[in-house]
Amino acid sequence: MKKLYIYIIGVIGISFLIPIIFTTRFKVKEVFNEQEPVMLDIEKYSYNDFATIKLLRSKTGEVEEKPLDEYIAEVVSAEIPIDYELEAIKAQAVAARSYTIYKIIYGSKHENADICDDSTCCQAWISKEDRISKWDENGIDKWNKIVEAVNGTLGEVATYEGKIINAFFHSNSGGTTENVSEVWGGANLPYLQSVQTSGEEAYTQYSSEVVLSKDELLNKLKEKYKDIEIDFSNVESIKVLEYTGSGRVKTIKFGNRELSRSRDKDNFWIKISKLYCKFSRWTNSI
């Protein structure tokens, strides 16, 4: 009888241990890091939910349905130079995928499409065929490098506190990124804050120079602001009124007009990240 009791207790113990063993062994954990792209929890995110996307062709107005990662490969080929390191191209793939799926989940700017092919509105895009034809040589090998980067990050998106982020990306920040609210206004997202970006100095478009006479400057401004007038004899006529936290211009005075970086950025014909203007014998750091 004693042996029978021991046997029963043993069976009961094993029945409790088996689910613990298998649950621990096969449990899917969400790995989260604020600085690195990660996989979402498999219980909260199914990659099959985003198998295809609807792409608006801006020139024709047509909407084309494409497999998601085929679209991502075409975006990556349009957004990043092919001679970059593979890991950099992978990072671009994660950013593009995150941006795309965010638009699908939280709403598109376009009525019948998830996203468009206009880089000034959504993301740059070029078809596989056009991309290969535009490369000077070894087009297939270059395309295969893009595919390797996309396939190497399948299902990966960037998250913050378990939620997919609105993954804005750019080629050059002039050494410091900007808080998102200072660029587009609206919510100041915690994962899009100003940080130092060392190593950009080698980028070919890190800095540039535009030289304008006073008349050229005034005429350029009048193209957008017909009523603008500037008294160049008065050093207060052109003046930075407010800077952002990263040291960029937030508000600047040109004569009788005050221009806001977030409101009027599309009206500037030059890059306005960090600009230096010199007039006569006085200088304003813009």
Description of the molecule:
The chain is an alpha+beta fold. Among the domains are: 47-169, no CATH class; 214-285, no CATH class. Helices cover 34% and strands 14% of the residues. The chain contains eight helices and ten strands. It has helices at 2-26, 68-79, 86-106, 128-134, 139-151, 180-184, 214-224, 261-264, and strands spanning 52-56, 63-67, 115-116, 159-160, 163-164, 238-243, 249-254, 257-260, 276-279, 282-285. The strands form four sheets. The protein has a three-stranded mixed β-sheet with strand order 2-1-3. It has a three-stranded antiparallel β-sheet with strand order 6-7-8. Strands 4-5 form a two-stranded antiparallel sheet. Helix 2 packs across helix 3 (86-106), helix 2 (68-79) crosses helix 5 and helix 3 (86-106) packs across helix 5 (139-151). The longest helix is centred in the N-terminal third of the chain and has 25 residues, at 2-26. Residues 2-44 and 281-286 have low confidence and may be disordered.
